[in-house]
Amino acid sequence: MLLEAESVSRAFGGFLALSEATLGVERGEIVGLIGPNGAGKSTFFNCIAGDLPPTGGRIVFDGVDVTAAPAEEHARLGIGRTFQVPATFEDMTILENVMVGAFLRHHRASDAHAKAMEVLRLTGLERQAQQRARSLGTPGRKRLEIARVMATEPKLLLLDEALAGLTPVEVQRAIELVRTIHATGMTIVIVEHIMEVILTLAERVLVFNQGRTIAQGKPQDVVNDPKVIEAYLGHHHRRRRARKAEP
Amino acid sequence: MRLAWGPIALWAALLLFPLLVTVSDSAAYLQDVGTTLILAAIGASAWNIVGGYAGQVSVGHAIFFGAGAYVPLLVYELWELPPLLGLPFAMIIAVLFAVAIGLPSFRLTGHYFSMATIAVAELVRIVVSNWPLLGEAIGIQGPATPRGWWDLIFRSSVPYYYIYLAVLAGVLALTYAMERSRFGYYLRAIRAGERAARSLGVPVLRTKLMAFMLSAALTAVAGALYSFKFGFVNPESGIGILVSVQMIIIAALGGAGTLYGPLIGALLLIPLQSATNTLWGGGGSGLTFIVYGGIIVLLARFEPGGLIELWRRVGAAAFARPKRGAADAS
After folding, report:
1. Distances in Å between the alpha carbon of B129 and those of A190, B132, B237?
2. If you ran DSSP here, which 8-state letter would residue A233 be given?
3. Distance from CA of B68 to the nearest CA of A (A)
4. What angle do CA B54, B60, B63 make, to 5 degrees?
5. Which of A72, A91, A128 is the mutation pick for testing B, counting most B CBs within 10 A?
6. Which residues contact A20 (CB under 8 A, 6 or more apart)?
């Protein structure tokens, strides 16, 4: 087990944003976290990423207890994350952005440069290497965030809505990228609210509602779970699924 | 790089300047302005490491400059030692101040650090103004006549000019090496976004603190160089808020967070300041504030990146038009 989160809770004052979420991730898996807005999936995500210390529970990564460790320690141990709203270093070039990540494992500039170029090739940003990050649009920024974190050579990749705000064509390209990365043996946890993305990508999903996990399992099973349909997908999705099922 | 001729011409001009102006009637005056300019560039370049690259705007660098100016004169006053021997102690004291300010305030984000630096600098200025050992409001003096070359007392400002220029070259060489190292990348990442930097494993607090310590030590060198030339320092010239503000304005004018920004800022601001001082004499001292204020307004409104950014945007676009489509892909 690469990641074990046991009954993780997070309260903001008197408000319990996340209540006793439990998740185990095996090496090489893609796990999806889904749920309506405010369901607690982002809170859970930020607890795993080390951005938000949990107020209860325990998180063990690769045999190390990281429950109270700061974000930079998470990165060092091999938990890489992207941000919902891309947080690229705007005035730095794309290559420099990725080099910041590469410097985590390669202290010499020439080694970091080589690692960064390798990641830029993998993520298809090679041609824009010398442009500033601010010249990119949303899809480019999301891609750059993935490249930057890949350069830190993580064991676990946390993607926070890496596909939100993209056009259908861009979504397809991004899914390809995630698949390419997964094919290298990367373990991935992805937060997403676009159902079709989760259905095609994740092997297993965890459904959140009102701070609790209400279901988990294979995507196909989960979408048919009445609790999930009622809490999150609503009638709209049931209708759409029914329509799709027609010949 | 395509700008390689720029720095070469710049350094050649700086090296030859004191010799070239000897043909002028006011050679001594121009050499003196040049010396002030190089010293200002050293201070602004030192500030640039933490204020520019790391984006942590210190408004308290006068403390470090003051430590640099006071300690060498103090070792003379107390033990009649050459002021030069006070330099290492000045640097140590500056670094200790940096740790004392940085350790608590770097944990907070936003403007807390800037506010903390202003507060501590004013506190230090008031303490020094009332401390008999440091000459209270009157200040302290170095040796009046040179006892040997090591007292670094020269009648002409030309020797100072070259000493300062050598130090400036050293500071910029250090900055250049830093820019290309992991430390330099981490500083720029912190400036661009602390949360993202942290997520990539950047030890944010430690990196900011190291930048502040390095910047403080180099600023103390600038203060010491000041005291060697003037042989006198008082709370206003050593720890006054204008000392800090001048470093910020010069660095920001040229381009904070760039290698040559502070030097370019000094090349513009110091001659301007000298000219206004000559025109209006002592009565125009309030004018400095107006000029500084005007520069802040113009920079904030039109070009926060300073003149170097303006050149990159306007100049580079005019000379080398980027290929269409290359700049707006995805």
Report:
1. 60, 8, 12
2. I
3. 33
4. 120
5. A72
6. A7, A8, A9, A56, A57, A212
Which whole number is the average pLDDT over B223-248? Answer: 92
CB distance A107–B182 less than 8 Å? yes
User: In the numeric block, which tokens belong to residue A154?
Assistant: 């993580």
ipTM of this predicted structure: 0.89
| Residue A81 forms contact with B (CB below 8 Å) | yes
A154 by DSSP, 3-state: which? coil
Please, where are the H alpha helices in chain A? 41-49, 71-77, 94-102, 109-123, 138-150, 168-183, 195-201, 219-224, 226-228, 234-245
Residue of chain A whose Cα is closest to the Cα of B186 = A100
Which residues partner with A60 through β-bridges? A4, A65
Cα separation, B111 vs B328, whole angstroms: 34
Task: Tell me if chain B has a CB within 8 Å of the CB of A131.
Answer: yes
pLDDT digits (tens, 9 = 90+) for B110-136: 788 999 999 999 999 999 999 988 888
Is the Cβ of B329 closer than 8 Å to some Cβ of chain A? yes
Q: Which pair of tokens denotes residue B61?
A: 């660098």
CA distance A158 to chain B (A): 11
Return the structure tokens found at A37: 């807005």
- Using a CB–CB cutoff of 8 Å, tell me whether B111 touches chain A: no
A38-42, A75-79, A136-140, B213-217, range with the lowest pLDDT: A38-42
* pTM over the 0.80 mark: yes
d(CA B74, CA B91): 14
Contact assessment for residue A33 and residue A214, using Cβ atoms and an 8 Å cutoff: no
Q: For residue A95, what are the contacts with CB-CB under 8 A and spacing of at least 6?
A: A113, A116, A117, A120, A129, A130
* A114 and chain B in contact, CB less than 8 A: no
Overall size of chain A counted in residues: 247
Which tokens hold the place of B144?
């009046």
Cβ-based burial of B19 (10 A; exposed 0-12, middle 13-18, buried ≥19): exposed
Mean pLDDT of A142-171: 91
Long-range contacts of A21-25 (CB under 8 A, 24+ apart): A21/A57, A21/A206, A21/A208, A21/A212, A21/A213, A22/A213, A23/A206, A23/A213, A25/A1, A25/A156, A25/A187, A25/A189
* Res. A63: pLDDT tops 50: yes
Q: Which two tokens stand for residue A241?
A: 């699924």
* List of residues 6+ apart from B220 with CB closer than 8 A: B64, B65, B67, B68, B71, B87, B90, B91, B93, B94
Q: From the list B196, B201, B327, which residue is nearest A104 (CB)?
A: B201
